[in-house]
Amino acid sequence: MLKEPIQIALVDDHKLFRSGMAALVTNFKRYNILFEAANGQELIDTISKGIVPDIILLDISMPVMDGVEAAQVLRAKHPGVRVIILSMFEDAEKVLLMVKMGVKGYLLKDSEPYEVEEALLKVSQGELYYPEFVTRHLITNFNSKLENIKLNPREIEFLRLTGTELTYKEIADTMNISVRTVDSYRDQLFEKLQIKSRVGLVLYSIKNKLIEL
């Protein structure tokens, strides 16, 4: 959790909106507006002078340098700074792009004040804040990817065996392959299915009826 007061940078090309957001955030008591910027370039220039916020409320659509470009620079040069995106629209493509780039939160500009406060609180505690529409886009994207995944017979056999009590070495013996090859199957499936554990492989197999309970 970040130490209080939590320093906020507010980046948006509409001055009236910035003023309203600044007043709202300051009213939450735990936060301080460190600086404001009208576009991504102003943000990057200010941070390069050593004025580094804890959290950035970053608009997507801005002149000179938009939020997507700014987020890319931040990810490369200041990965410790947490970013919450501000947007007017439920743009599925940009939502997915920004999530992949590691933004910690996403807010529509017509969000209620309590949603803004909740987003700041969660992100300051190291958590993520994605409202329902972001989650919906992520699930839709994930499911569409799974529908296009093609598995070969040996990968399917390996997946079925992960649902047993066999160790990876015993799976290798059962499939008559080396442990190294089993590791290769596992790592390839982790990448292909966007899964990080054996439990995830088993759940995928159950969902796709490769394993029957």
Beta-strand content? 5-15%
Number of domains: 2
Series of secondary-structure elements, N-terminal to C-terminal: EHEHEHEHEHHHHHH
The CATH class of the largest domain is identified as Alpha Beta
Structural overview:
By secondary structure, the chain is α/β, with parallel strands linked by helices. It contains 10 helices and 5 strands, in the order βαβαβαβαβαααααα. It has a 5-stranded parallel beta sheet, sandwiched between helices. Helix 8 packs across helix 9. This is DNA-binding response regulator, NarL/FixJ family, contains REC and HTH domains. InterPro entries: CheY-like_superfamily (IPR011006), NreC/VraR/RcsB-like_REC (IPR058245), Sig_transdc_resp-reg_C-effctor (IPR016032), Sig_transdc_resp-reg_receiver (IPR001789), Tscrpt_reg_LuxR_C (IPR000792), WalR-like (IPR039420). Pfam families: GerE, Response_reg. Keywords: DNA-binding, Phosphoprotein, Transcription, Transcription regulation.
SSE diagram, text form:
Elements: E1 6-11, H1 15-27, E2 31-37, H2 40-48, E3 55-59, H3 67-77, E4 82-87, H4 92-100, E5 105-108, H5 113-124, H6 132-147, H7 153-162, H8 168-175, H9 179-193, H10 198-207
Parallel strand pairs: 1-2, 1-3, 3-4, 4-5
Helix pairs in contact: 2-3, 8-9
Pfam family, one: GerE
GO molecular function: DNA binding
Keywords: DNA-binding, Phosphoprotein, Transcription, Transcription regulation
